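Sequence only, no structure available. Ideas?
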Amino acid sequence: MPPTRQQALALVDCNNFYVSCERIFRPDLARVPMVILSNNDGCVVSRSNEAKALGVPMGQPWFECKALAEEHGILALSSNYALYADMSNRVMTILSGFSPQCEVYSIDECFVDLTGLPQLRALSYAMRERVGMWTGMPVCVGIGPTKTLAKLANHVAKKHPRSKGVFNYNALTAPQKSSLLQCLPVQEVWGVGRKLTQRLARHGVTTALDLREAHIPSLRAEFGVVMEKTQRELQETPCMALEEVQTDKKQIISSRSFGSMVTELPVLKDALSTFVANACTKLRAQNSHAAVIQVFLQTNRFRKELPQYMPSLAVPLPCPTHDSLEINRWASFLCERMFKPDYAYKKAGVVLSDIRPTTHHQGDLLTSARPDQQKLMQSLDSLNARYGRGTVKVSTQGAYAGWQMKQSKKSPNYTTSWDDLPMV
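Reply:
I predicted one. C-alpha cells follow.
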C-alpha cells in the first residue's frame, strides 16, 4: 500500500476582527487604542493590540474601564453586527477560491483543506495578500495535520513576529514539534478552558507536550472521550472531520437584553414579535418547522434591590409550523399568561424546539393544509432578503422603541446601507 498522504488543514483567522472591520473604513484609527462593546454597550468583546497592551481584559464591563479609557484615550464603539456579518461573508468567499473544501467555523475563522497542494507557505501568503487586498482585513494562517494543531499553529502565527502571519506545523521535524509544544501552555490547546487547565495541572499536565504524551487510558478515565480526542489530535491523528455543510439546528433561540427596563405588556409583546420573526426566518432558511415553542421573561438579576421574577412557559403546537403569524400568536398568549405588572423586565426570549424537516409532517384530520400561508412566508422572506430585515413585518412588531438595544456609539453600516456608503 502507498503511504498515506499527510493532511494539511489551514486555519485562517481574522486579527481582532470587530476592531479590524471598523478600521478598514476609518484608517485614522489605525494606531488608536479601541474596543468594541457587546449588546447595550455592556462588556468589551473585541480589543485592539493597543488596548490589550494597556491592560483592558476581554469581557470586562465597560463602566469599569471608563477611568482607564479617559486616562489613555481608549475609543469605544458599539457592535455593528450588519457590518461584521457582511465583511465575514466577503472574507469567506475569497477563501473558498483557494480550496473546494472549507468549513466556516465562526464569524472570523475558517478551516481550509490544502491537502496535496504544493508550496503551502507561498499559498498561505497568497491567501493573506488576497484577503488584505480585496477587503483590507488582516489575517493569520496556521497549518497542521489536525484541527487542534492548526489552531495551535495559528496561535504561533499571531504571537510570533518572525512567522510573518503564517506558520506551518507540518514542515517541522519531530524534535522541533516537541520543542514547540513544550513552550505552549496547555490552556492554549483548543477546547482546554480554565477549569480543565486547573484539573490537568493536578495530574502534572501543564504544557501541550505534556498533554500529548499523557497516558491515554488514564486521561480518558479522568476526563472523558473528548479529552482523548484532543490528545490524539495532538498526536496527529485526525478525530474531527472538516464539516463543509452546517447541520440543521435542533433548537433555535432568539433573545436579547433590553436597552431599558420594561414594565408594560404591549412593549414585551413587541419585543417577542421581533424575536419570533428572527427565529422563524432561520427556521424557514433550513426548510424546517417546529413543534414546541417556549417563551421566557427575566428581571435584572444584577439589581438585587429589585423584586425578581423569571417565568418560563412551553407548549406543544397543534401542528408543526414555521409560520411567523401562528407562532407569534402563541408567543403573545404565553406572554399574557406570565406577565405580572409589579416587575421590571430586563430580558425576554423565544425558543423553538422539536425541529424537524418540513418533509417530515404528520397530518391532522381536523386541520387542513394552508398553501396560501406557505406562499405568504416565502414572499415575506423574499422581500426582507431584498430590501433588508424588517421591511415586511407583523403589525405587533416595531411599535415601541424603548426595549431596543442601546448602540449609542455605533458606526455607520458602510457596506449594507446606501445612505452610509463612504464618499470618496
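The chain is about 40% helix and 20% strand.
Hope that gets you unstuck.
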